[in-house]
Amino acid sequence: MKILDFISVKLTIGLVLGILLGYSFDIIPTIAMTFFGISGVVLGLIFIFDTSRTRIGYGICAFFCTVGIGMVVIALAQPNNIKTHYSHIPATTNELWELEVREILKPTNYSQRYIVS
Q1: How many domains does the chain divide into?
Q2: Contact 76, 68 (CB under 8 A)
Q3: Bridge partners (DSSP) listed for residue 116
């Protein structure tokens, strides 16, 4: 029994590859969504018009679609792609932030951690 004969293993490898690509190349969300959208449309067209679905093109396109999903997930999770993230506030301003502590996390030897809003 070969491990790569299972579809879930192949798709998981594609997802991990997409996550690694998105993380290492700092891909912006529009590029990742475009790649995912194009591969999804091609996959859908192959699904509709190719009734056998056993050809190599369907598998390759499904692999690229899962790579696109991994890239989209990483691109949307990066703080620099979230417009409301605190890192977009200029550090030169002298502002007073009022934060409300929602939860106190378990402290470590080096830090006290909180969840605030």
Answers
A1: 1
A2: no
A3: 101
Q: How many CB atoms lie within 10 A of CB 96?
A: 4
Q: What is the pLDDT of residues 41-88, one digit of tens each?
A: 988 888 888 777 667 888 888 899 999 999 999 988 887 777 777 777
**E-only strand ranges, 1-117:** 101-104, 114-116
**63 with 20: CB under 8 angstroms?**
no
Domain of 49 in residue numbering reads as 3-116
Percent of the chain with pLDDT over 90: 29
Return d(Cα 11, Cα 9) in angstroms, integer. 5
Tell me how many helices (H) and strands (E) the chain has: 3, 2
Residue 8's identity, in one-letter code, is: S
Q: What is the pTM of this model?
A: 0.69
C-alpha to C-alpha distance for 104 and 86, rounded to whole angstroms: 20
How many whole angstroms separate alpha carbon 75 and alpha carbon 5?
Answer: 30
